[in-house]
Write a structure and sequence with these properties.
single chain; alpha/beta; six-stranded mixed beta sheet; 8 helices; 18% helix
Length: 452
């Protein structure tokens, strides 16, 4: 490779190398996870319906399930959601109350009906005073001319031709009357989704709606592609919590990693702080690599006296794919893997110890690697190829600059605070503008900053 500035691999080539390695490590099978942990992952298998939706013929409205064309039916019972039913009896519920109240009259004669306006005055009107008993009505079949009072979502009895909503019904003396259209307000079993149907293909992103859909189809888990990550935060000077003491700096990279991983379809399963030292690095790498797909090492990727990542990788026989990237911030970053070049194993990504440099390196190597491994979509694909950048930006002579910008009104404006050790700029920004060597403006590509 040809050295570019202080690094080896050009920025765009480094990103592509990470994608290619991730594609090679695409898992043949996924891992089952509980629904509440699946959002952000990618389906490893087609999502199929274990049950139909709805699973039974169900009422789509509160009202009366009726059999026969009407316009009058005798009320013989009541069914609640969940299949609970009052005892089958003559004139229960709203019709019975109407008889007691002695108001109105049914179409075609007879006193004691309730008006349609009054029928909507109670959320679940006409409930009997005794507790309902579980199970179906004693006779679950409606005969022509019969009706049962029914709640939305409750199973309709066999023989139901329609549901007559309360607001269209008039009830009195154990009867209900109104106009219906056959099949109206009845959701037939499987009419939305038939049992066994494939509703989403493998490779689909798992969103909250997908989780809800899976639950409605009878699933408790989803088989997903989600790379597992372990992180090592290195440095004798690192304080993991609280205010740093004399000579210490607070760890600002470790707290970013869970969201960085999740934004690329992966999961951080463990984080460990370790001191500087060659033997410590070798032991930590060997311990972390076993149960995970990727090990992220924060710090120790440069070439100072306390930076032992390269030597430790050589000791454990790793293959280095990218050793330094010609970008600023973030040029001392590294991509390697265990195993052989023909059969790569656990991947190691080395991020610089400066927080902004680490974030730039994560966007460069870690995010493309993880998205490829997970089969997750690339959010940058939705961006225009380039966007106008306001203001004067000085390109580097040899390296690609990643400049934090805020995107507004179809153009990008630098936010400043772009030193390697400060996250103030990225915290104000939406993206990095990619400024190659020799850039003369005003248009540049963007890379979205992770949003978690």
């Amino acid at each position: 490779m040809v050295r570019c500035g202080n690094a080896v691999t050009p920025w765009a080539e480094a990103r592509e190398a990470a994608r290619e390695l991730g594609d090679r490590l695409w898992p043949a099978t996924g891992r089952p996870v509980a629904l509440d942990r699946a959002v952000g992952a990618v389906l490893a298998r087609d999502l199929t319906a274990l049950v139909g939706v709805p699973p039974f013929d169900a009422a789509a409205m509160d009202g009366y399930a009726v059999a026969g064309p009407g316009p009058r039916w005798r009320v013989v019972g009541r069914v609640l959601a969940g299949g609970r039913a009052a005892e089958k009896t003559e004139g229960v519920g709203r019709a019975e109350r109407a008889e007691a109240g002695g108001e109105g009259e049914l179409p075609g004669g007879g006193a004691g009906g309730l008006s349609a306006a009054d029928s909507g005055s109670h959320p679940v009107p006409g409930l009997p005073t005794s507790d309902p008993v579980p199970g179906p009505m004693p006779d679950p079949v409606l005969r022509p001319g019969e009706a049962v009072e029914i709640a939305t979502g409750a199973p309709v009895p066999a023989g139901t031709d329609a549901v007559l909503p309360y607001e269209h019904a008039t009830a009195a003396r154990g009867e209900v009357a109104g106009e219906i259209a056959l099949g109206r307000h009845v959701r037939r079993a499987g009419e939305d989704t038939a049992p066994g149907a494939t509703v989403l293909p493998a490779g689909s992103a798992v969103t909250p709606a997908v989780v809800g859909l899976a639950a409605s189809l009878g699933h408790d888990t989803l088989t997903v592609r989600r790379p597992r990550i372990a992180a090592l935060v290195t440095g004798d000077e690192i304080a993991a919590t609280g205010r740093p003491g004399a000579g210490q700096v607070r760890d600002a990279i470790g707290p970013m990693l869970p969201a960085l991983a999740a934004s690329a379809g992966a999961e951080l399963t463990g984080l460990r702080h370790i001191g500087d030292g060659f033997d410590t690095m070798v032991e930590a790498l060997a311990s972390a690599a076993g149960p995970v797909d990727v090990v992220v090492v924060c710090g120790a990727s440069s070439k100072g006296p306390a930076d032992h990542l390269r030597a430790a990788l050589a000791r454990i026989g790793a293959t280095v794919v990218v050793d330094g990237v010609s970008c600023r911030p973030g040029h001392p970053q590294l991509l390697a893997h265990l195993g052989t070049p023909e059969d790569p194993g656990t991947v190691v990504v080395g991020l610089p110890g400066n927080p902004n440099a680490a974030l730039a390196a994560a966007v460069t190597l870690l995010a493309p690697l993880l998205r490829a491994m997970a089969g997750a979509p690339d959010p940058d694909a939705a961006l225009p190829p380039t966007i106008r950048v306001k203001g004067a930006i000085r390109p580097h002579a040899h390296d690609t600059r990643l400049v934090a910008v805020r995107v507004m009104g179809g153009q990008a404006e630098p936010v400043g605070h772009d030193r390697p050790g400060s996250l103030r700029g990225p915290a104000l920004a939406d993206a990095y503008a990619v400024i190659p060597p020799g850039w003369s403006g005003p248009y540049a590509p963007l890379v979205w900053l992770p949003r978690g």
